[in-house]
Amino acid sequence: MLKEVLKSIVISQQEWLKPELNETYGAVYYYTGSAYVSWNGGGAGSRYVPPMQGFMMAPGTAGTMNLTNAHRTHNGASGYYKESEIEEGTIILQAGNAAFMDELYIILNENATSDFDLAFDAWKLISGESYVSQIFSFTGDKMLSIDQRPACEQIPVGFRCGESGSYSISLKENSTPGKVWIEDKETNILHDLSQGAYSFGYSPIDPDNRFILHLNSLGTSPGTMSPLNIHVYNSEDKLYVNASNQSILQIRIYNLHGTEVMRINGNRAEKMEIGMEMQPGVYFVRVTTDIGTETEKIYLN
């Protein structure tokens, strides 16, 4: 439905000054050749549209967009979409690998709401390129590339890519007074992003809503995750899983690059013994029970 209201426009022989227009038309979107960037009071795009630069809008309703000479400026005339401007209260997350890095802009703004605000937010436009990593936040079940909202403690964050592999989420910018943590619901890990990037294995069949961003203005940890007390170990080419009175629903095994190499139906057993005829190396065992999911690392000699 979003694509039906997108309007592609090319500005010729003028530049466009954005601030007066966002309340009526919303964010501006640019296609970089492989993915999309956006701007709406912040973002990886720019408020200035140079001559001959194409851009898109996703207004709340259909209509006609009117530009006048009052919207012209000589700022930003030397190239295409520009580097973003960092506002106070901004958190920028980067996600991806060596092939491609994507960005999510979160701006704490007391004038915004936690729902989609045309004047503040921007939708996440999904690239069709399989190698493109894509990070976004959620408002309900809708994905955002720019998320402006009042101060809060948790923000649901998603990740998507068309290729399995090893990826990371890092903190590019934090102009808020506190720290931020990323929670991986698949591995049950809580990571302080101020200490460095969080690395994780990924498969395209993983759920989009895998992460939660935790904010704390006091800079104190939001607490450690509650482990499910699942015991995983290997011995003589066999994998042993003890779910401690939980029902095992599924076991998935990944190599170090995040590629799934085995999937087993748990049949609601509490203990399982699995043959592992694999190459020596590091593997991740993701166990899903009727209570939750936990991931353990094993080493095959």
Describe the protein's topology.
Blueprint (H helix, E strand, L loop, with lengths): L1 H4 L1 E4 L5 E2 L4 H4 L2 E4 L4 E4 L8 E2 L4 E4 L32 E7 L4 E8 L13 E2 L10 E6 L2 E8 L4 E7 L4 E10 L4 E6 L4 E4 L5 E5 L8 E6 L14 E5 L2 E5 L5 E8 L4 E10 L1 E5 L5 E9 L3 E8 L1
Parallel strand pairs: 8-11
Antiparallel strand pairs: 1-6, 2-5, 3-4, 3-6, 7-8, 7-13, 9-11, 10-11, 10-12, 12-17, 13-16, 14-15, 14-17, 18-19, 19-22, 20-21, 20-23, 23-24
End-to-end Cα distance, whole Å, is 52 Å
Ranges where pLDDT stays below 50 over 5 or more residues in a row are 1-19, 79-84
Main beta sheet? 11 strands, mixed
Number of domains: 3
Oligomer state of the chains in this structure: single chain
Averaging pLDDT over every residue, what do you get?
80
> Count of helical segments?
2
Write up what this structure looks like:
The chain has 301 residues and is mainly beta. The protein folds into three domains: 2-71; 90-216, no CATH class; 231-300, Immunoglobulin-like, CATH 2.60.40. Helices cover 3% and strands 46% of the residues. The chain has two helices and 24 strands. It has helices at 2-5, 22-25; strands at 7-10, 16-17, 28-31, 36-39, 48-49, 54-57, 90-96, 101-108, 122-123, 134-139, 142-149, 154-160, 165-174, 179-184, 189-192, 198-202, 211-216, 231-235, 238-242, 248-255, 260-269, 271-275, 281-289, 293-300. Strands 7, 8, 9, 10, 11, 12, 13, 14, 15, 16 and 17 form an eleven-stranded mixed sheet that branches. Strands 1-6-3-4 form a four-stranded antiparallel sheet, with no helix packed on it. A hairpin with a 4-residue loop joins β20 and β21 (260-269). The longest helix is centred in the first third of the chain and has 4 residues, at 2-5. It is elongated and about 75 Å long. The N and C termini lie far apart (52 Å).
